[in-house]
UniProtKB/TrEMBL annotation:
ATP binds at K60. WD repeats lie at residues 371-402, 457-490, 499-540, 541-582. One of its GO terms (cellular component) is protein-containing complex. InterPro entries: Kinase-like_dom_sf, Prot_kinase_dom, Protein_kinase_ATP_BS, Ser/Thr_kinase_AS, SKI8, WD40/YVTN_repeat-like_dom_sf, WD40_repeat_CS, WD40_repeat_dom_sf. Coiled coil: none annotated. Residues 30-282 form the Protein kinase domain. This is Protein kinase domain-containing protein. CDD domains: STKc_PknB_like (cd14014), WD40 (cd00200). GO terms for molecular function: ATP binding; protein kinase activity.
């Protein structure tokens, strides 16, 4: 890099690269590759373990005076015993200590975490978006909860951007446990250690505690959200924070950060668990913003306020907080433009959709035609299993059936009364039944030969989000705001039970077309896989940050896809039930409306509010994108066995599109 280095240096003081062609090897085992950090006690190196086929490890080198070596060695051995206890997936594992008495050095060997620390990310991105910061906060709070749960609690004492690494999958790791201590409420710290700018006043006085870790994390969060160094917003002597720098953040996140960073411990969260619970509430509010609040665009009257508050209460959001959120929305005078900066491509929280020119065949999408199907919003469009009908549903409760040979309307029926609304529509796999679910928890059954209504059944006590048939068309499953999945037997013509497992509203579900597997997702990001031969739960996992938006099985049943409000797309193997690929969608990822898998099962269509992406599932690369020519798309449906698809939108339009050039 051209830096002038002192003669005794083995590694460049600027870039960390080795200055000699002769490798530095410690204990005939660890080959130092480059220097990656310098601290108050020594240096940190990236190294290869020559006994484990070059496995990468991190080596921390502690240097001291020879006269103090024995004392320091005893201290580090005790510290090593503490660190050896740690077993958390986002804490690097400690492999051991090495002592070099001759040169008065001690080496700590630990796992290498691939990725970038927050300092490096800020150098590239300037600052992070709220959703990205929440990912960091959730991960680090989970780690702190683990550390603080020991008896006595372990206090990290050095939480700063350099010590939080984000790996290629977007997971945050907390590293560097050289300052960790066991918290004793009646004792002062053995020695005062802190990093200027991030330490709470109590830590600087020698009274570190779990609360001071929370303070430091709050300061880090403000820094990554504003791009400002702590010296720009924090009084170093008193620890008081100038909260005007976060005035543009959402009110719920502002309140959270203010409580994290109060100078007095009594005013902060009691512990990491309480902070995590508060962050869970923030996630629920952000989901509520996406699906309810934002549609009013600040025009919130008494009716809209009541709807928002009712939904907030069901989600467990405190009244005072949701009222602050509503008041903030009402007083907005401008609408912020969507973020689109060149720095997005370097975000480590996502594997960005490739914007590079495609090689080989070019994927194109062409609109073939459109029809004004509804006077108000069209909320859903689907094709029948045989592809002979296209069915649409409107916000006005009207369902329309179009033939796909001539695209003429065949049937129009009123499916709901004025005090109810359609939430989902499905045709059974055997094409005999058409089903409508409603906001009031009703399910209405129609036979498709004459489109006459057979029955109306109350399957849930609250709004139904989505419905799904079993492959043999015998069972219908409904999920919604009641947190359970109701099971209806079409042969017995009765509800036969329910499956419980979700802690919050069920937002979506889908059934495998080949096997007895149902997958459901809820507002807290949980995905549950059910065995519908026994109606028992097989697996439950917190896969997404916020609401699970859509679940879709491939026609072969070999895999299914889940997408969430966090913009993450997860590809699952239906046989092993393992997540085999994860990909974070970059642009407007919080506005995912619907997804569809192409007949070749090599691509997925991702509909956002105004645009649509085609993504290859092998490389997770973007093939093309189009403007959907609408204010807001509401659904997407693939024509069976053909590369055609339809979209519905809030203008009541149904558009038919053709895909070409898929490779």
């Amino acid at each position: 890099c051209g830096e002038h280095n002192p003669p005794q240096e083995l590694f460049c003081v600027k870039c960390g690269s080795p200055l000699s062609e002769t490798p530095v090897i410690i204990e005939n085992r660890y080959k130092l590759i480059r220097k990656i950090g310098v601290g108050g006690f020594g240096k940190t190196y990236l190294a290869e373990d020559l006994q484990l086929f070059g496995k990468k490890v991190v080596i921390k080198e502690f240097s001291m005076n020879v006269s103090k070596f024995e004392e320091f060695a005893k201290y580090t051995q005790k510290e090593g015993m503490v660190l050896a206890k740690l077993n958390h997936p986002q804490i690097p594992k400690i492999h051991g200590f090495l002592e070099d008495r001759k040169n008065a050095k001690i080496y700590l060997i630990q796992d290498f975490v691939e990725g970038k620390n927050l300092r490096q990310i800020l150098a590239e991105r300037k600052k992070l978006e709220e959703d990205e910061a929440i990912i960091v906060l959730k991960d680090v709070l989970d780690i702190l909860h683990y550390l603080h749960s020991f008896n006595p609690p372990l206090v990290h004492r050095d939480i700063k951007p350099e010590n939080i690494i984000v790996d290629p999958n977007g997971k945050a790791f907390l590293v560097d446990y050289g300052a960790v201590i066991e918290y004793q409420s009646d004792q002062k710290d053995r020695e005062i250690i802190y990093t200027k700018g991030y330490a709470a006043p109590q830590q600087k006085q020698g009274y570190s505690s779990p609360s001071t870790d929370l303070y430091s994390l709050g300061i880090v969060a403000i820094e990554i959200l504003t791009g400002l160094n702590p010296e720009k917003f924090k009084d170093e002597e008193t620890g008081v924070v100038d909260y005007s720098v976060i005035k543009d953040l959402s009110v719920e996140l502002r309140d959270f950060l203010m409580r994290m960073t109060k100078p007095s411990p009594a005013d902060r969260f009691k512990n990491a668990a309480e902070a995590k619970s508060a962050l869970d509430i923030i996630e629920k509010i952000r989901t509520l913003r996406d699906i309810k609040i934002n549609q009013y665009r600040g025009k919130i009257g008494d009716k809209e306020r009541k709807e928002i508050i009712d939904m907030a209460h069901k989600l467990g959001i405190p009244s005072d907080l949701i009222n602050k959120v509503i008041d903030e929305e009402k007083h907005k005078t401008t609408v912020k433009a969507s973020t689109s900066t060149s720095s997005v491509a370097t975000s480590p929280f996502v594997t960005r959709l490739s914007m590079a020119p495609q090689t080989g065949a070019v994927t194109t999408i062409k609109m073939l035609g459109k029809v004004q199907a509804h006077q108000g919003a069209a909320i859903k469009v689907i094709f029948s299993p045989k592809g002979d009908s296209m069915i649409t549903a409107g916000l006005d409760g009207v369902v329309k059936v179009f033939g796909t040979s001539d695209w003429e309307r065949k049937i129009s029926l009123k499916a709901t009364s004025e005090d109810d609304a359609v939430t989902d529509i499905k045709v059974s796999p055997n094409s005999q039944y058409f089903v409508v679910s409603t906001k009031n928890g009703l399910v209405k059954f129609y036979e498709t030969s004459a489109w006459t209504r057979l029955s109306v059944v109350k399957l849930q006590n609250d709004e139904i989000s989505e419905i799904a048939f079993s492959p043999d068309s015998r069972f219908l499953y409904t999920g919604g705001y009641e947190n359970i999945i109701s099971i209806f037997d079409l042969i017995k013509v009765e509800k036969i039970g329910a499956m419980a497992g979700h802690n919050t509203w069920i937002s979506c579900l889908d059934h495998s077309p080949k096997a007895p597997i149902l997958v459901s997702g809820s507002w807290d990001g949980t995905v549950i896989i059910w065995d519908t031969s026994t109606f028992k739960q097989k697996l439950a996992v917190k896969e997404h940050l916020g609401q699970v938006r859509k679940i879709k099985f491939a026609d072969s049943g070999k895999f299914f896809i889940t997408v969430g409000n966090d913009g993450r797309l997860t590809l699952w193997d239906s046989n092993t039930l393992n997540a085999i690929k994860r990909h974070q969608i970059s642009e407007d990822s919080g506005n995912i409306v619907d997804i569809a898998i192409t007949p070749d099962e090599n691509h997925v269509l991702i509909a956002l509010e105004t645009r649509l992406f085609v993504m290859g599932l092998e490389l997770m690369d973007k093939k093309t994108e189009i403007d959907l020519q609408t204010r807001r798309c509401t659904s997407i449906s693939i024509f069976p066995q053909k590369n055609y698809f339809a979209t519905s939108d809030v203008e009541g339009m149904i558009k038919l599109w053709k895909l070409a050039g898929l490779t």
